[in-house]
């Protein structure tokens, strides 16, 4: 596997605030990575460091296995980390021509990239006439003009309407299917689930998880229980080797389990201990609930 970017023990402090805390992760060629976390969790700061626009407080990062300078490496990277900004009175095509001049790259790819983002038929329209989604798509075309090995996007669908969101996600998937590695920052679980193969979950600058999206959360669920004899039930659950934690609310006992268990077997087990249940349900949190538990957002909001 070819490593595109490797970050190790990265920390960024702004005065007393630690925006990124001892963060390490690796980006391998050909995958679509999401950095997922609530607003303020350090996603943009992390991207900014790797793009040399934010200075790290400590730690390291290296591009493409470390055999080039960051300056050289960034010529092989396409990034959009701010709101797209082009000349309002110039056409989409002319704006991209200017980008080619500034970056000293060939103009050959302009039409191809405009086509990829669905703007070829609007290439002569002035930038100011574009919707926000079209502006974002033009920015993607612009970042792709030099055929980068990796495309970096910070909250690519922020502020867009559902159709605009759908278009951007489809374009990202298209670009990925052509072999370009992608790294995107998002606060939307749904977006990362839909678009990414791998994810780094951040909370308050710290990594909570790194790995495939589909293995992000592996919960065995929980039992909801009611019994006449709540005290006995709680005592039994608290001593149970497969019960991670219990909680009780208005007589409803919730027992979180750390390995798969069937409701029937659990009912039998309790019965044998003389604990009769009036209610027994085995539930699994939705992916969203599990994610919120992982990032502890529920507690933060309270
Ligand atoms: P995210 O991209 O996940 O929303 P950021 O990386 O933008 O998070 O911010 C992480 C934390 O660092 C936040 O608390 C934010 O307020 C703070 N922060 C970001 N940039 C600066 C800055 N230039 N000066 C001071 N604090 C900053």
TrEMBL record:
Signal peptide: none
Keyword annotations from UniProtKB, A to Z: ATP-binding, Nucleotide-binding, Transport
Domain ABC transporter, first and last residues per copy: 5-229
GO molecular function, one term: ATP hydrolysis activity
SMART domains per UniProt: AAA
Gene3D superfamilies the record matches: P-loop containing nucleotide triphosphate hydrolases
InterPro entries: AAA+_ATPase, ABC_transporter-like_ATP-bd, ABC_transporter-like_CS, P-loop_NTPase
Family: Belongs to the ABC transporter superfamily.
Protein name per its UniProtKB record: ABC-2 type transport system ATP-binding protein
